[in-house]
Task: inverse folding
């Protein structure tokens, strides 16, 4: 295990631009033995072979780590994840360029090591198709999961460009495979002109609930999230955040941007509330395409804050 703060023990605080760029400067290890006693482990999934539009989210895990800030007391709640959780950066799954199935197997195995150790895996994507192996790994330990899904798109289409396996179809696969309980599945932030009515009919037949970005604007994020919490209810759940749920003003380089999205403060508040209220078995943030370096990258900065707020919510739940 490597502690990025090791050389800064005497001054007591490492500047974020120095040393090993683990997430939030937390300890880093790729040894499953070091998962013993860990509460949450960060896993990178640098894969974007199945994106239908702009690629580049393969660089998302690295960008999110570089943009992340040290953990500490969250100003609004006073909760400090560093005081209540043991968090480890478990490195990246060993993805294989051009090999979709080998890469999926690597992601599922790496996330499964975290879940099998009793920790919560939080995955940094990568395009949204990485949720397929990541959630499968969590469901293998916990059984069918509830799901809260922030996105501008449903990602439950039967195909995209006549291909059934990509970042717009994988959540349909997870439902049909039995890994996601559709009655405990809620989408937040939908907008735009895709998918068509047949997909929404398929969802309605299975009890999948959705809230549009306009619902969030009219009703407020607190009310929408409260309904999501009630729908998911008790039992293990997964939280997936496609950064394109945000308005493109805040994540301009994401793969499939849609105008009229959420603001970061709405997303972060929702993630924090959900992570405190639900029994999270895992989570991810996906589709971050770097647009700068470090804190100059607005999308990666917010993606890192998604993980930080999830950790705050998990920590508050353990109070």
Result:
């Amino acid at each position: 295990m490597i502690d990025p703060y090791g050389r800064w023990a005497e001054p007591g605080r490492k500047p974020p631009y120095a040393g090993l760029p683990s997430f939030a400067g937390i300890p880093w290890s790729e040894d499953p033995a070091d998962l013993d006693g860990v509460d949450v482990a960060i896993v990178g999934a640098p894969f974007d072979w199945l994106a239908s539009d702009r690629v580049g989210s393969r660089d998302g895990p690295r960008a999110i780590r570089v943009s992340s800030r040290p953990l500490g007391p969250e100003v609004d709640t006073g909760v400090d994840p560093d005081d209540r959780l043991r968090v480890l950066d478990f490195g990246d799954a060993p993805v294989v360029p051009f090999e979709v199935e080998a890469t999926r197997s690597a992601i599922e195995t790496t996330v499964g090591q975290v879940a099998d150790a009793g920790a919560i895996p939080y995955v940094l994507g990568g395009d949204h198709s990485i949720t397929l192996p990541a959630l499968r790994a969590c469901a293998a330990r916990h059984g069918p999961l509830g799901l809260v899904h922030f996105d501008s798109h449903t990602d439950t289409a039967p195909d995209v460009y006549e291909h059934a396996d990509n970042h717009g179809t994988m959540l349909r696969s997870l439902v049909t495979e039995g890994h996601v309980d559709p009655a405990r599945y809620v989408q937040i932030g939908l907008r735009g002109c895709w998918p068509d009515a047949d997909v929404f009919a398929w969802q309605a037949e299975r009890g999948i609930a959705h809230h549009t970005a306009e619902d969030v604007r009219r009703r407020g994020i607190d009310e929408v999230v409260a309904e999501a919490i009630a729908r998911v209810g008790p039992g293990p759940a997964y939280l997936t955040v496609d950064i394109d749920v945000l308005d493109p003003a805040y994540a301009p380089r994401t793969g499939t941007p849609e105008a009229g999205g959420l603001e970061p403060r709405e997303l972060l508040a929702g993630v924090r509330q959900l992570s405190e209220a639900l029994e999270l078995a895992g989570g991810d943030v996906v589709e971050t395409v770097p647009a700068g370096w470090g804190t100059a990258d607005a999308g990666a900065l917010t993606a890192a804050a998604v993980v930080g707020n999830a950790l705050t919510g998990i920590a508050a739940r353990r109070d």
Observations:
- The radius of gyration is 18 Å.
- The mean pLDDT is 94.
- The CA atoms of residues 19 and 154 lie 39 Å apart.
